[in-house]
């Protein structure tokens, strides 16, 4: 297994900023593009290529994520290696985060955690 830190240079797309460092992917702002897969697919591919046993996805700075963005996260979760653990880091004051991510967590409850 790889044991190297993730490094994905910060990218700005309309109202969102995405980046990756250490063991964490950061999603900030608002992902409300018609097709966020145009940038999220490559972002998650880079993360998957560099991924360690556990990857954290920090949503605390994300104010909005549309259904197309959620679909990109579902795809990422479905394509990860079976033993990779994912931790969604959420902001408890943004209830949509937990509700949306709990549905994704149900896809692989042994390997997906949500923390606030």
Can you put this structure into words, describing what you see?
The protein has helices at about 35-50, 65-80, 95-105, and strands at about 5-15, 15-20, 25-30, 55-60, 60-65, 85-90, 110-115. By secondary structure, the protein is α/β, with parallel strands linked by helices. Strands 1, 2, 3, 4, 5, 6 and 7 form a 7-stranded mixed β-sheet that branches. α1 links the parallel β3 and β4. α1 (about 35-50) runs parallel beside α2. The longest helix has 14 residues, at about 35-50. It is globular and about 30 Å long. The N and C termini lie far apart (about 30 Å). The mean pLDDT is about 95.
What's the structural blueprint in terms of helices and strands?
Blueprint: E1 6-13, E2 16-22, E3 24-31, H1 37-50, E4 54-58, E5 62-65, H2 67-79, E6 85-89, H3 95-105, E7 112-115
Parallel strand pairs: 3-4, 3-5, 4-6, 6-7
Antiparallel strand pairs: 1-2, 2-3
Helix pairs in contact: 1-2
Strand content: 35-45%
Point out poorly predicted stretches: none
Series of secondary-structure elements, N-terminal to C-terminal:
EEEHEEHEHE
> What is the end-to-end distance?
28 Å
Protein traits:
single chain, 116 residues, alpha/beta, seven-stranded mixed beta sheet, 3 helices, 33% helix, 35% strand, globular
Task: Give a brief outline of the structure.
The chain is of the alpha/beta class. Helices cover 33% and strands 35% of the residues. The mean pLDDT is 93.
């Amino acid at each position: 297994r790889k044991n190297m830190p993730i490094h994905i240079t910060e990218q700005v797309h309309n109202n969102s900023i995405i980046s990756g460092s250490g063991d964490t992917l950061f999603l900030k702002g608002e992902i409300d593009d018609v097709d966020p897969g145009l940038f999220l697919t490559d972002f998650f591919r880079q993360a998957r290529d560099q991924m360690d046993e556990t990857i954290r996805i920090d949503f605390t700075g994300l104010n909005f994520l549309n259904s197309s963005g959620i679909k990109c996260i579902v795809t990422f979760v479905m394509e990860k290696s079976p033993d990779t653990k994912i931790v969604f880091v959420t902001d408890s004051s943004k209830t949509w985060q937990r509700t949306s991510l709990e549905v994704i967590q149900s896809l692989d409850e042994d390997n997906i955690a949500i923390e606030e």
